[in-house]
Amino acid sequence: MKKVLINCLVGLVTSSLWTQAQNRPMTEDDYYRIVTLPIPENIQLEIGGVAVLPDGRVAASTRRGEVWMINNPYLKGSGQPTYKRFAHGLHEPLGLLYRPDGSFLVSQRGEITHLIDSDNDGTADVYESFYKWPLSGNYHEYSYGPVLAPNGDLLVTLNLDWIGRGASLAKWRGWLLKFDDKGNMTPIATGLRSPAGYAALQSGDIFYTENQGDWVGSGRMTHLEPGDFAGNPAGLRWSQEPESPVKLKEQDIPNTGEPLYEVAKRVPGLKPPAVWFPHTLMGISTSDIREDITKGAFGPFEGQLFVGDQGHSKIMRVMLEKVNGKWQGICFPFREGFQSGILRMVWGLDGSMFVGQTSRGWSATGKDDFGLQRLVWTGKTPFEMKAVRSMPDGFEVEFTMPVDKATAQNVDSYQFNTFTYKYHRTYGSPIINASERVIRHIAVSDNGLKARIVLDSLKLGYIHEIKAEGVRSAAGLPLLHNVGYYTLNEIADGQKIPSSQWNAAQPKAATVTTDHSNHSMPTATPSTNKGPASAKRNTEQPADWTNGPDQTIIVGTKPGLKFDISDVQVKAGSRIKWIFNNNDDMLHNCVIVKPGTANPVGDAAIKLGLKGSDMQYVPKSANVLFHTNILQPETSEAIYFVAPKEPGEYTFLCTFPGHHTLMQGKLKVTK
User: Fold this and answer.
1) Helix H or strand E segment including 601
2) Strand runs labelled E in 473-590
3) Are 246 and 450 in contact (CB under 8 A)?
4) Which residues pair with 224 in a beta bridge?
5) Is residue 656 pLDDT above 50, yes or no?
């Protein structure tokens, strides 16, 4: 009777949602509302750290070296928040930890600093060094934290330097460090490149997120234990120090371009990610991790993780499981549309989430330079894939509400693909070894909350893309987010469904297999700026240009997703040699498009999905006139073309997903 009552209530709620959906599609905003905190014009709140205080205030550290106390951050009544500066003169603090005695710990570039208000006037008057580490002076030496572990340890991560590649110029750069309350330091793990986000869960397990870069094919989340090596060899420079728990050396790490999972079989201590965040499909620069400990105040995802993305100004959702002693799981889209680049997320006293943001020097799809927003659950439950679990012959998908069994059991409602990335010293990676999986059987549970899906094969170490575009709830709602990416490190034990019970069409003699093999692993790493020429990408000077080009234009990049020149002028019909220098530390291309089409072309590049990498993120469109390929950092490419005959204001832009809204320039064609 209780179960029947619950299902009736769920039906009433979903019917109400469907009534709304008949008028317009349900959106993320219907379930999770973004509330923006006003910030005075004279405060540059480029947030590096956020802390929630027991008295209801919020503290925020900024990249400009200040700490601000914010009153009324929940915007109660008709009052606005007020700001009071608590500390200043710090060196880019990228973390903030409140202590029970009312003081704070912040990680500056070169130390953990203890901030104390000894006279209780609301301003720190004691800046006490808790622990110092050396600096080389490189601009990339970001320091994050500290984060408090459940056992009382303090955790800090140190970013690598950047010299055209990741480097550890000062001791312990690229490491996770642990401190006790006396300031005694213990190195824990290395292989970190840009570890802006990390968390110690309630279980005590430590996870950190990584951005695409050298040795990092895509964003990923890795479980860290003492002695682990997470993939970037630069930090191994210090592995021979007596206190180091890691014994690998830089020369132990092969640069073959094989998937990281395969290399880890031969390199003891190399830790494959628990979850991959496919680059541009999910985000481009993962940041903070926040475990849902709100006991339902933030919706139906208790115990799961929320992960921010700085470049795409959005939050993703992660469900983890431990199979055969190893962590793995799935990531889903969750909430986009924040005002700037997300760096920090903390729980408010009411179970809402404060989201601290900044974009200076890094840039983001959110248009503002910085911001502080609050994400509030509206009380409505979205129709989502709540969890996906490994099965011995496929996966079990759990939904947040009962499904329509006809659509949930229809093979055409789903699509499964597998792919992975190269593990090599090159910046980023194309998608490799992509293939489609075939569904053999679908069984929906009696209560409609789960679907057991049998596949033709599973690929260990691979990302399994799960699309469920055709599934509907019992009330007819489509999934709010119909895609997820499961990283399969281990296959769960249990009973397979016999082939005699399969209900999906299949070829004769088909068998379910578990693929443990090494699939066409590349041994060479071709440069990403190599590829066939075309009418839109001519890399050779035309033979009939006997006197050479009429004009040579050199366009470079600069930090913040910008070209180094914003305006170029050419004559209509003139012969142009266009040189694009990517002197940034991330991947870019340069695409010239028709007037007024930059944003549609950029949006089309985002929608290329798994095909994007192979297509150099250049969509097939008549609006695209000329383009380079995607270029690695510190590389260059020249293309040759005849300028349009029609005068006007054309646009050159980078169509690498997430870049086009900021990275644009004007190409003025004159008579």
Assistant:
1) helix 598-606
2) 483-487, 513-515, 551-555, 557-558, 562-563, 567-571, 575-582
3) no
4) 206
5) yes
Residue 121: exposed, middle, or buried by beta-carbon count in 10 A (0-12, 13-18, 19+)?
Answer: exposed
Q: Which two tokens stand for residue 159?
A: 């970013």
Query: What pLDDT score does 534 carry?
Result: 66
pLDDT at 15 over 70: no
Note the helical H segments in 230-326.
260-264
Task: Note whether 158 and 175 are within 8 A (CB).
Answer: yes
- Written as one string, the DSSP assignment of 77-107 is TTPPPEEEEEE---S--B-EEE-TTS-EEEE
Residue ranges and CATH numbers for the domains of the chain are 2-227+274-377 (2.120.10.30), 385-515 (2.60.40.1220), 551-670 (2.60.40.420)
Name the residue type at position 372.
Answer: L
Asked if omega into 146 is within 30° of 0 (cis), the reply is: yes
Nearest to 476 by CA among 386, 375, 402: 402
Residue 215: burial class (beta carbons within 10 Å; 0-12, 13-18, 19+): buried
pLDDT value of position 561: 80
User: Which residues, at least 6 apart from 251, have a Cβ–Cβ distance to it below 8 Å?
Assistant: none
User: How far is the C-alpha of 212 from the C-alpha of 225, rounded, in Å?
Assistant: 22
Whole-Å CA distances, 530 to 527, 564, 630, 637: 6, 24, 9, 9
β-pair partners for 331: 318, 485
Q: Please give the backbone phi and psi of residue 21, each rounded to the nearest 5 degrees, phi first.
A: -65, -25
Percentages of the chain per state (helix, strand, coil), in multiples of 5: 10, 40, 50
Q: What is the 3-state secondary structure (H, E, C) of 611-645?
A: HCCCCCCCCCCCCEEEECCCECCCEEEEEEEECCC
Q: What is the DSSP letter of 499?
A: G
pLDDT of residue 506: 53
Q: What is the dihedral of CA 238, 241, 245, 251, to 10 degrees?
A: 50
Contact between 133 and 110 under an 8 Å Cβ cutoff? The reply is yes
Rounded Cα distance between 177 and 245, Å, is 11
Report which of residues 609 and 647 the model is more confident about: 647
Give the DSSP letter of residue 66.
-
CA dist 508 and 88 (Å) reads 72
Helix or strand run (H / E) with residue 4: helix 2-23
Look at residue 509 and tell me whether its pLDDT is greater than 70. Answer: no
What is the edge-to-edge ordering of all strands in the sheet holding 370-377? 32-36, 370-377, 353-358, 342-347
How far apart are alpha carbons 655 and 84 in whole angstroms? Answer: 41
- The pLDDT tens digits for 527-538 are 444 445 568 999
Q: What is the pLDDT of residues 561-587, one digit of tens each?
A: 889 999 999 999 999 999 999 988 788
Handedness of CA 358, 359, 361, 364 (dihedral sign): positive
Query: For residue range 22-54, what is the model confidence (pLDDT) as tens digits?
Result: 568 899 999 999 999 999 999 999 999 999 999
